[in-house]
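Much of our argument rests on the idea that a fold can be written as discrete symbols. The record that follows shows the chain in one-letter code together with its fold in token form.
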Amino acid sequence: MNNLFNLFIIMLLLTLNVACVEKKSHPKEISNSKIVTQFKTNTLKFTSGIRAILQDSKGNYWFGSQKEGVSYYDGKAYQYFTQTDGLPDNQIRSIQEGPDRNIWFRTANGISMYNGVTFTNFSTEPNTPKLEWKATAENLWFSAGEKEGIHLYDGINLNYLSIPKLKNENPNNSYGTTGISKDKNGNVWIATYSALFYFDGSSITNFDNRKLALKYNEKLHIRSVLADSKGQIWIGNNGIGVLLHNGESTINFSEKKGLIHANSSGNGDLSPAGTLEHVFTIAEDSHGNIWFGDRDTGAWKYDGTSMINYTIDDKLSTSMIWCIYKDKENNLLFGMADGGVYKFNGKSFTKIF
């Protein structure tokens, strides 16, 4: 009888131990939300600006706002998710789809993953940084905000990777990530406010003022980066315009095209029409044209020879473009700071969301 009782106790302890192991959360996971609500509308109601756009593998659209959370559009209605539904913050800075079709959001206060039912939020406080950078094609890369590093999701863990310190760096420099772009070979270009970093899968190379051959009065304040299909690297700044790096040399593209005002301060001051000095987003369309979204002067297209400036909608209170996104039908979509999403039809712009 005692043996049977002892056997029962052992089996009970083993069962409880397995249950505890199964309930362990991801080491950086901080919460699972309740099942989200089903608030829907027939039109996109965001007014605070569209910072991020994604068309997922099923063809559905996701819109990230400046202050109002996320909207999901399935072709019939818009569904909304906010902090009330489990997001860590209502400012959405980027949206990605993982290999498992879960949708990932980089918010102003952490990273969140949505599996179609609930949100799982992850802390973005730097854990013990992994000194060895490794990457595969399926990795998801996220900005670490103002922190001097980047987050990488490898399919299992969300890791914080520290950016190597630059020699003789200015103590006032900030290396918070502002943009991420993969080139045609799968290498990753990481824009920070004060330098550009290049990761080839095994080592990291930095491009600061000196390596980019800037003039004494030019100061990096990078807000966007694009590795285009030709292998060129476009670097958008808030102040000194667009830099173009071709692998061997760098030019101030805005200056070369006569798009820097003669009295430009080279910082965040308001710029007049006809200039390209404050570039917050860059994209390439299906024809190889490069598009720039300027904070003050709207949309610009470079066709390899000439620059064309577009007014997206003269009824908008601001010309600022937060993001430019190419969807699966090769439509170029522009997320505006004034709210709404516009599509370029080859000649003009139409508000479609």
Observations:
- Helices lie at 2-22, 253-256.
